[in-house]
Predict the structure.
Amino acid sequence: MSKQAQTQLHAKRLREALAQIPDLRSLPDKVWSPTFEGWQERVTQSLATVFGSDQDYTRRFKRLRFLSPQFHPSRTWNSDDEQEFTADLALAEELLKEALEELDVAPPAQDATPAASVRSPVPVVINVTNLLSQATNVTVSQILASSQFSSLPAEVQEKAALHAKELDEEIRGQQRWPVLAKSLEALKSLGKGAYEHVALPLLLDMLKKQAGL
């Protein structure tokens, strides 16, 4: 099975798992139910397959206990367990929504081709080298204070500022493409001006640093 097909399969399973959460809340045996145990195993496997076993979504899900941290010699269920179960299911629901949202904005996975995936970033750096060498380091504060930004419609400025801060935070952090793409698409939807005067300067600054310029 190709990587793309595998990702699509497990994304489908994660969507199904998300839809099953309301039914899990009414299970009579809660965490000891075979239905819940199977659900938990499938989610763990799918998250690990799509994102990796050490990725944030997978680790966060594995930390969910779904019952209070106490010894259950006779599998007795109390109010503390019920509270923990309800709270952790809510956390699992939000986690799955975030993971699926990231999958929806991620570019399609490509099967490996001879050295193509390794060499693909190089032409990008070469093509923009001259432009990068002319650029100066920029910050969100500088962009928001620029005349180009102030020329944007007032209703656009507030949204553009929010997405610019989100984009800058990810650029200075893990630089995850799905998260970057989400902010870029949001800025692009605000119009050409927001994209050119907000998104591009931040992207160019990131590429310049990556290229060592």
